[in-house]
Amino acid sequence: MNDNPSKGGTDKSSRRDFLKSSAVAAVGASVAGNLSIARSAHAAGDETIKVALIGCGARGAGAATQSLNTKDPVKLWAMADVLEDKLKASLSALLKGQDARYDREKHQGFGSKIDVPPERRFLGFEAYKQAIDSGVDMVILTTPGHFRPMQFEYAVKQGKHVFMEKPVAVDAPGIRQLLAANEEAKKKNLKVAVGLNRRHDVKFQETIKRLNDGAIGDIVFMRCYRNFGGLSCVFRQADMTEMECQLRRPYHFLWLGGGEFVDGHIHELDVCNWLKGEHPVTAQGQGGRQVQTGHKYGNIYDHHFVEFTYQDGTKIFSQCRLIPGCWNNISAHAHGTGGAAAVCRGRIEGAEKWRFRDRAANPYQVDHDVLFDAIRQNKPHNEVGYGAASTMTAIMGRMASHSGQMIRWEDAINSTMSLAPKRYALDAPPPVVPDENGRYPVAMPGVTKVL
To answer: Residue ranges of the domains in the chain?
Structure first.
């Protein structure tokens, strides 16, 4: 892997340009001679799409399940992870039909759809390259968010279609690296999906359409929540290096997962950006580490409150909390001049009351159905624009709560502060290491620099 994501600058584009999903492919991409890579590969008559799974945790097994559940021939062809036990457990779950954490579709095992012999099971920090080069058409990127930009960049270089989980990066250099790679993806007419699956949930689609049509008048402010009891921890064993220990607890280290504000709360912030049609221009807030303070919790905060402001003055009031025994809520709400809406529940209280009552298909599955259909039918499909915008929104919010400062979008997106380690190896030191008491350094508002 590269030692550091690119630290180069970026052109300052408009907010709406940044948010565009790039659904329209590059000029001329629809011309008959510019067929997608996968369709060209299938010209000889084999319509099977071969998939590589990179990152074999619970979400990886879930995403592989959804890919294998799409219609028409598909085969899991290669797998890659740094940790061997993770790869073995994921492969076993898929073969036996055991439910993974995010496997929302029941199945009886995918034996006939899995062809991953030992020689196509790759281990180590460079394993993603071997999996991508193994003869696949499409790759699933479900490693911790830190690795997303470099892995996406390599997949694009090799001409592969991509499904990648959110967040798409954990710092601004990673966002810029990913956006640069996406320009090449568009030139190559590659199909790219991002796991912000609420975009594929008909309940959210219908609710936001009605709000955009004026069901509650002009949006005045929004509020969103990611409040729940906390994240499970893996305790360090005596034979683990510090790097391996952190890799097994990615949600507790900012350099790996970005913290819950970035890794999880991105869903609610993405709903607000979707509704508004752009990203915020400033963020200010506060946060800290009050209850989950032990060394096993890494260096993330257990609570945040951030106020985001859009160009026209519209605000998001955002909460993210990981403390047991408190009020739990995961939702997004909109308030307008003529009413209010609970977007996640599909409820609108405006001039007319409305509630979504249909049965919605599993958005995790729809995400993959749409991607595979785009690959097979050569339809424009690129979700990096809004994936990057919402990831950067969350990163900007984390910057605000960690520093206690007002953060401007232009400063945040152009930040050169990278969270990457100097070297990738299980015996290499991670970017943060514990002190003599086993405690990790934690951001201090008013002191910590984030830009």
So the answer is: 15-198+365-392, 213-358+395-410
Distances (CA, A) of 75 to 133, 262, 310: 16, 32, 44
Strand 339-342 to strand 329-336: parallel, antiparallel, or no bridges (unpaired)?
antiparallel
List Cβ neighbours of 317 (8 Å cut-off, separation of 6 or more): 221, 222, 223, 224, 305, 307
Flag whether pLDDT at 184 surpasses 90: yes
φ, ψ for residue 197, nearest 5 deg? -70, -10
Cα gap 318→299, rounded to integer Å: 21
Query: Which of 89-98, 253-262, 379-388 shows the lowest mean pLDDT across its residues?
Result: 89-98
Given a cut of 60, whether residue 22 has pLDDT beyond it is no
Name the residue among 291, 286, 280, 243 with its Cα closest to residue 261. Answer: 286
Domain 213-358+395-410 falls in which CATH fold?
Answer: Dihydrodipicolinate Reductase; domain 2 (3.30.360)
d(CA 142, CA 63): 8
Class for the domain spanning 15-198+365-392: alpha beta
User: Given this chain, do its domains 15-198+365-392 and 213-358+395-410 carry the same CATH topology?
Assistant: no
Query: Is residue 66 exposed (0-12), middle (13-18) or buried (19+ Cβ within 10 Å)?
Result: buried
Look up the pTM and report it. 0.90
